[in-house]
UniProtKB/TrEMBL annotation:
Natural source organism: Streptomyces albospinus
CDD domains tied to this protein: Macro_OAADPr_deacetylase (cd02908)
Cited NCBIfam families: PRK00431.1-6
Protein name, as recorded: Macro domain-containing protein
Matching Pfam families: Macro
Length: 170
C-alpha cells in the first residue's frame, strides 16, 4: 500500500496523529526546538519514560539515526518517536544518517501500529542542516520506505521550510 505525503505549516505539538516524531538528541533528556516544545506541551510523563530508557537499553544514549518510542503524554497523539538527527558538517557526508532517522522512525511506527505519523524537518534547525537538502532527503527517504503507515505529514514551522518541502513533493 502506498503512503500519502502531506505538508502542513504549523506546530508539531498540535498534530492529532498516531505518532509525532521528535528531533531529539542522544541524551533523550530534552533540549530546544521541537524537542523542547514536545516536552513542554506533552508534560512530564514523556521525560519519565525517556529517563527509564536511559537507565536501561540506552544507557550510552540513543545513537544518531536510531529511533525509539514513548508515550505522548498530554499531546493529542498516542506516541512520540524520538530520533537523533546528525549535525550538519561540511567535513563529512552524513546524509545516510539523516535518511536513517526517517526509515527507523517509520519502522518503529510500524511496530506500534501507527497509521499517521507527523515529522518535523529533522536536523534542519539547531543541527544546522541546509533546509533544501534536509527536505530532499526527507521526501526521498519516506517515498522509498517500505511501511504500513498510511499518512506521513511533514510539519513545517515556517514558510521557507514549507516551500522547500513543497518543491520536493511537486
Ligand atoms: N513544530 C514543528 N517544527 C518545529 C517546531 C515545532 N514546535 N519547533 C521548531 N521546529 P530543531 P534539530 C522546526 O532545532 O535541528 C534540540 O535541542 C525548526 O524550525 O528542533 O534536529 C534537540 O535536543 C527546524 O526547521 O531540531 C537537539 O539537541 C526543525 O523543526 C537538537 O535541538 C528542526 O529543528 C536537534 O536539532
Amino acid at each position: 500500500m502506498s503512503t500519502t505525503l502531506t505538508l502542513t505549516r504549523g506546530d508539531i505539538t498540535e498534530q492529532a496523529v498516531d505518532a509525532v516524531v521528535n528531533a531529539a538528541n542522544s541524551t533523550l533528556l530534552g533540549g530546544g526546538g521541537v524537542d523542547g516544545a514536545i516536552h513542554r506541551r506533552g508534560g512530564p510523563d514523556i521525560l519519565e519514560e525517556c529517563r527509564a530508557l536511559r537507565d536501561g537499553t540506552y544507557f550510552r544514549g540513543l545513537p544518531t539515526g536510531a529511533a525509539v518510542a514513548t508515550t505522548a503524554g498530554r499531546l493529542p497523539a498516542r506516541w512520540v518517536i524520538h530520533t537523533v538527527g546528525p549535525r550538519f558538517t561540511h567535513q563529512e557526508d552524513r546524509s545516510e544518517l539523516l535518511a536513517s532517522c526517517y526509515r527507523e522512525s517509520l519502522r518503529v511506527a510500524d511496530e506500534l501500529g501507527a497509521r499517521t505519523v507527523a515529522f518535523p524537518a529533522i536536523s534542519a534547525g539547531i543541527y544546522g542542516w541546509p533546509m533544501e537538502d534536509a527536505a530532499r532527503i526527507a521526501v526521498e527517504t519516506v517515498r522509498a520506505a517500505q511501511t504500513s503507515v498510511e499518512e506521513v505529514r511533514f510539519i513545517l514551522f515556517d514558510e521557507a521550510a514549507y516551500e522547500a518541502f513543497a518543491r520536493q513533493v511537486r
